[in-house]
Design a protein that fits this description.
The structure is a homodimer. Chain A is an alpha/beta fold. Chain A has helices at residues 12-16, 26-39, 68-75, 119-131, 149-161, 178-191, 208-217, 239-245, 254-264, 277-284, 290-296, 304-314; strands spanning 7-10, 43-48, 84-90, 109-114, 135-140, 166-171, 196-201, 222-225. Chain A starts with 6 loop residues before the first strand and ends with a helix.
């Protein structure tokens, strides 16, 4: 019933860090890590490793930088089982200088997030990371805006120049419908012959989990989720739903439910992720959720028809 | 780009009535009706027409009975445009005596909800309603529990004995995945040759909208939604998402957003519908959401791992 090749990546702390400038407590991060290890999740992504020159440590918490010493505080005393540790580097916001030799690091996998325009930076980062002993993936963001031939070239370049384990379809705007997911995975597979395809979906239109399933049906073997869907705007594909769908007996959903009850649900007092009309409207229009996030932080939050009219006017 | 045959049924007041014993104010019901008419929604379902012998009017609000006189108070002074009015009758909880002659009624469509075991009652109700001048549909509930040959017989019976416009796949438990939706619609279409197939999906696993799309892809032409997904447990497919997906220019999403902002979002203070772990767990296990609803109303609400263990123990 199950496909053993499928790898689940829980990126709660990394992606959720976009909601709170990566200010999670060490206790929460350790609980999320511990739960992922006990649940048998394949990879757990504990933050960005982005440049301190672009993000001020006064403003951003430790999981925006994810120094090895900080990560060791997370993993200390916890049996990882088969679970590996990942961090994400944005191609345009990080530097190869921050990739220290892999043998001294708790990090197993470096995921390079990139727009198509930054693909040269991304392949360079992925190459350096591989040379220094890390597993790598390349995650192409805002894929719903990348319809042109430069995507094909980027895929070809990743296929030829990197040792990435997987190349991701990242639906940053939550704009894709199932038929578009099918189309994109087929397009990726025209160029990606020696690596896996991955999917990272956003929930603007309540389709993150559904589109992840559609990715799996078309052969994607790297799939991302976050606990209870925690993430920017409407959030992500919930990892617990993914584990409920996948039938691999190595997974155990119970530790995820425990950490959700104890650490994630309480975050709802501060962070209002999930389905909201402003996010749905940027999703339908294939826009970055930034305008919706600003609206949700304003006093007019619930005047959703006014936000609709604003988008109609500004983008007519 | 669009399929003109597709009919959208907004059943906010009917399905949402399961969350509050159908106690909506007349003002809210008029606003929902007005919005559906202005949005060009094909049908708006304003309640159940169930028996006062089974539901006490002391406990249940007027939209559990939906008398013609009550419905006329809703429609008075509102231009329906092309929007028609529907009510639902449960095959096992209503009586043909409550179907008054259609020419005197504001109701256009009577939807008969049934389990497979009650199919004889359902076809009888549908026949009486048709004879008295109404359009009809037959909506087969809890379809994820109906795998056996009796479903085929029920479909054959509806096809042969009724004039229903459509026969529905109703995923009461929110248990279906896309491949199962495809399978069920193909199965329906083996027997349903002179009527349309409809889909009514629940959101226990965040798949209500996605599964509705999959139904449409496989040819379902009657699709249900509710405003902002209002409905029992995790709720329904949001009508606003449906209208965003469908490209028929007769639809206008703006009136729906207005009524959501003004009347539906405020209901969140009293009704906690939407994605919650207990609903997700009954969905995954293909169970009626009742146990999850009770858990959500208890003081242990957020101890979701305990609910998981409860289900593991009770259903082992």
């Amino acid at each position: 019933m199950y496909r053993p090749e499928i790898k689940v990546v829980d990126c709660t702390i990394r992606d959720g860090g976009l909601t709170n400038n990566s200010h999670f407590t060490l206790e929460t991060v350790r609980a999320a890590y511990n739960a992922a290890c006990r649940a048998g999740v394949d990879y757990v992504e504990l933050g960005y490793r982005n440049s301190r020159e672009m993000f001020s440590p006064d403003e951003y918490g430790p999981w925006r930088f994810s120094d090895d010493s900080q990560l060791t505080e997370v993993t200390e005393g916890i049996d990882p089982g088969a679970t590996k540790l990942a961090v994400m580097m944005d191609a345009h916001k990080s530097t190869p200088d921050d990739i220290l030799p892999g043998e001294d690091s708790p990090v197993d996998l470096i995921r390079v997030a990139t727009y198509v325009k930054d693909i040269d930076k991304a392949t360079h980062l992925a190459k350096v990371a591989h040379e220094r002993g890390y597993e790598t993936t390349v995650n192409i963001m805002a894929i719903s805006c990348e319809g042109g031939p430069t995507l094909d070239e980027a895929l070809q370049q990743i296929e030829q120049e990197t040792n990435a384990l997987a190349v991701y379809v990242v639906d940053s705007y939550g704009a894709l419908y199932s038929e578009e997911v099918h189309f994109l995975i087929e397009r990726y597979k025209m160029f990606i012959k020696t690596k896996e395809v991955g999917v990272h979906m956003h929930n603007s239109q309540q389709l993150a989990f559904a589109n992840t399933i559609e990715g799996i049906i078309k052969g994607a073997n790297y799939v991302d989720g976050t606990l209870y869907g925690l993430g920017r705007g409407a959030g992500n594909c919930p990892t617990e739903l993914l584990l409920g769908f996948l039938k691999n007996p190595k997974f155990d959903i119970e530790p995820l439910l425990e950490v959700i009850g104890e650490h994630i649900l309480p975050l709802q007092k501060e962070i209002d992720w999930g389905y909201h009309i402003p996010y749905m409207l940027t999703g339908i229009r294939n826009l970055h959720p930034q305008a919706a996030i600003e609206w949700m932080n304003s006093e007019q939050k619930d005047n959703v028809a006014a936000f609709y009219r604003k988008l109609e006017t500004e983008f007519e």
